[in-house]
Amino acid sequence: MDKNQVAALLEEIAVLLTLKEGSNSFEIRAYENAARAVGSLEGEIGQLVREGKLKGTPGLGPTLIKRIEEAVTTEHIAFYDELVANTPQVKLDMLRIPGLGPKRINLIYQQVNVTSLAELEQACKDDKVAHLPGFGKKTQDKILQGLEFVSQHADRYLYSVGEAEGERIRAALVEQPGVVRLQIAGSLRRRRETVKDIDMVLSVDDQAGSDVRRALMDFFTSQPSVKAITGKGETKSSVILQSGIAMDLRVVGDSQFPYTLHHFTGSREHHIPLRRRALSMDMTINDYGLFQMKDGQETLIPCKTEADIYAALQMDYVEPELREDTGEIDAAARHALPTLVQESDLRGVLHVHSTWSDGQNSIREMAEACIARGYSYMGLTDHSKLASYANGLHADDLKRQGEEIDRLNEEFAGRFHILKGTECDILRDGTLDFDDETLASLDFVVASIHSNFNLPQAEQTQRMLRAIANPYVDIIGHSTGRILLGRPGYPLDLDQVIEAAAEHGTCIEINAHPSRLDLDWRYVRKARDKGIQIPIDPDAHALVGIDDMRYGIGVARKGWLRASDVLNTKDFEALVTFFHVRRSKK
């Protein structure tokens, strides 16, 4: 397990303890604090455990260190498993309802006596929940909306969860004897924001015997993260992992590998027009091969890679992220596909938090972590004063923070730059949480909505449009406010927002946090086509959060972004010039 997974497990224990009747509040806080402590650790947690370096870390006592060591070495915590086993299933199911926390779940469970989400839905429809202490009709309606959201996203997992699970098994399998090629396929390879399952394709030598295939399948199905085996054969095996996500492994001869990989990468929407193109050229394509049809006979067209398949169809290679039937077939045939942005194109990070507001690390620590990752600048954006829950800064705080940044910039001169910024709250009427004089003193401003999510769409849209029109707003942060699998975005006319951002030269970020990935890739291309610069921002609240940039790259590539479309592919001087010029124009 990596740090994020361990921290998430500790947070889940805290939630499960809250759901447990008679739990000790001090124990709950201990796990919450431990999760934050783990998330802020620098270095690979497995190495820290092996070297015994967790001892003395604030927030980590002997019991918690043992739990963390157990998680790292066995990939689970027995105490967590015990809590899950002893928690009524309906309580666990209710945790998936947006906005419904453990305390309210306990109250519903105790006083309404529901044993399933279906019973909870009926209780809401019968108006039983509204009369509970501290609830009311609005809360009941929100629970009904949340139940509908849960139903729509059942059996889905964040991309980051699927990626971690798939990579763990891929890394183990690739070292096994007989493996020629191995690749994760499916929606993970296409970098969809959520996934239902994991597909993996493995090739062996065409002449390999059954013993090789059986040994690989035995190894796959006996991995520590496998909870159950749902199917096992020489060509395909299926398992359920400890996280609940299903995984399939297909083993083929190496000559079949590119066809099988292409087929199981998908998407279905991409394959349908591709097959039509093949048929128009008297070809047919499936997971066994690409075939030329003549006089009722099929002849295999040899392909060593997926690129060969597309070339045989007189197309440029289509990157997996683009295979969604959004125009990529026609563009590939016209040799008009963009050269997609890569993580190596990024020069710096914007939208970073520190201990001045709700971050877990100092400005220096965040800057040094960026330097270690090869970045040349960092845009600091601690919260504004309205965000009191996040220790938001007042104008005087910003001035003092600016003085610290000046000192650090002198120290880092020539090798790294810190930009002075803020993540400024957009108020209900669309004005900002700082006055223009304060905003003008900063290098750049990210403006975000953190409150009043339930305004009518027209009002919410006007709120956003007014913020975009402010001359000091350089970037709109996490534009819809969605939390993937957690809550839908607030109602917003994104087409209007994109039009306004293009008119005012305002950037719209891709928030790279794996629970956000907001702006959605479906709108990223619309923004690109309007000429909007789109920064990829980690919204990092701890050192490990900086590494979320790679998730944002996935969204950018799905949105057809080139390096020139991404704001923070600019070097420091070009970035500062960009901010200066756009403000001067306004």
UniProtKB/TrEMBL annotation:
<keyword id="KW-0808">Transferase</keyword>
<keyword id="KW-0239">DNA-directed DNA polymerase</keyword>
<keyword id="KW-0234">DNA repair</keyword>
<dbReference type="InterPro" id="IPR047967">
    <property type="entry name" value="PolX_PHP"/>
</dbReference>
<dbReference type="InterPro" id="IPR003141">
    <property type="entry name" value="Pol/His_phosphatase_N"/>
</dbReference>
<dbReference type="GO" id="GO:0003887">
    <property type="term" value="F:DNA-directed DNA polymerase activity"/>
</dbReference>
<feature type="domain" description="DNA-directed DNA polymerase X">
    <location>
        <begin position="2"/>
        <end position="324"/>
    </location>
</feature>
<keyword id="KW-0235">DNA replication</keyword>
<keyword id="KW-0832">Ubl conjugation</keyword>
<dbReference type="InterPro" id="IPR050243">
    <property type="entry name" value="PHP_phosphatase"/>
</dbReference>
<keyword id="KW-0269">Exonuclease</keyword>
<dbReference type="GO" id="GO:0005829">
    <property type="term" value="C:cytosol"/>
</dbReference>
<dbReference type="Pfam" id="PF02811">
    <property type="entry name" value="PHP"/>
</dbReference>
<keyword id="KW-0227">DNA damage</keyword>
<keyword id="KW-0548">Nucleotidyltransferase</keyword>
<dbReference type="GO" id="GO:0008270">
    <property type="term" value="F:zinc ion binding"/>
</dbReference>
<keyword id="KW-0540">Nuclease</keyword>
<keyword id="KW-0915">Sodium</keyword>
<dbReference type="InterPro" id="IPR022311">
    <property type="entry name" value="PolX-like"/>
</dbReference>
<protein>
    <recommendedName>
        <fullName>DNA polymerase beta</fullName>
        <ecNumber>2.7.7.7</ecNumber>
        <ecNumber>4.2.99.18</ecNumber>
    </recommendedName>
</protein>
<keyword id="KW-0488">Methylation</keyword>
<feature type="domain" description="Polymerase/histidinol phosphatase N-terminal">
    <location>
        <begin position="348"/>
        <end position="428"/>
    </location>
</feature>
<dbReference type="GO" id="GO:0140078">
    <property type="term" value="F:class I DNA-(apurinic or apyrimidinic site) endonuclease activity"/>
</dbReference>
<dbReference type="GO" id="GO:0003677">
    <property type="term" value="F:DNA binding"/>
</dbReference>
<feature type="domain" description="Helix-hairpin-helix DNA-binding motif class 1">
    <location>
        <begin position="52"/>
        <end position="71"/>
    </location>
</feature>
<feature type="domain" description="Helix-hairpin-helix DNA-binding motif class 1">
    <location>
        <begin position="92"/>
        <end position="111"/>
    </location>
</feature>
<dbReference type="InterPro" id="IPR003583">
    <property type="entry name" value="Hlx-hairpin-Hlx_DNA-bd_motif"/>
</dbReference>
<dbReference type="InterPro" id="IPR029398">
    <property type="entry name" value="PolB_thumb"/>
</dbReference>
<dbReference type="InterPro" id="IPR037160">
    <property type="entry name" value="DNA_Pol_thumb_sf"/>
</dbReference>
<dbReference type="GO" id="GO:0004527">
    <property type="term" value="F:exonuclease activity"/>
</dbReference>
<dbReference type="Pfam" id="PF14520">
    <property type="entry name" value="HHH_5"/>
</dbReference>
<dbReference type="Pfam" id="PF14791">
    <property type="entry name" value="DNA_pol_B_thumb"/>
</dbReference>
<dbReference type="InterPro" id="IPR002008">
    <property type="entry name" value="DNA_pol_X_beta-like"/>
</dbReference>
<keyword id="KW-0378">Hydrolase</keyword>
<dbReference type="GO" id="GO:0006281">
    <property type="term" value="P:DNA repair"/>
</dbReference>
<dbReference type="InterPro" id="IPR016195">
    <property type="entry name" value="Pol/histidinol_Pase-like"/>
</dbReference>
<keyword id="KW-0237">DNA synthesis</keyword>
<dbReference type="Pfam" id="PF14716">
    <property type="entry name" value="HHH_8"/>
</dbReference>
<dbReference type="InterPro" id="IPR004013">
    <property type="entry name" value="PHP_dom"/>
</dbReference>
<comment type="function">
    <text>Repair polymerase that plays a key role in base-excision repair. During this process, the damaged base is excised by specific DNA glycosylases, the DNA backbone is nicked at the abasic site by an apurinic/apyrimidic (AP) endonuclease, and POLB removes 5'-deoxyribose-phosphate from the preincised AP site acting as a 5'-deoxyribose-phosphate lyase (5'-dRP lyase); through its DNA polymerase activity, it adds one nucleotide to the 3' end of the arising single-nucleotide gap.</text>
</comment>
<dbReference type="InterPro" id="IPR027421">
    <property type="entry name" value="DNA_pol_lamdba_lyase_dom_sf"/>
</dbReference>
<dbReference type="InterPro" id="IPR010996">
    <property type="entry name" value="HHH_MUS81"/>
</dbReference>
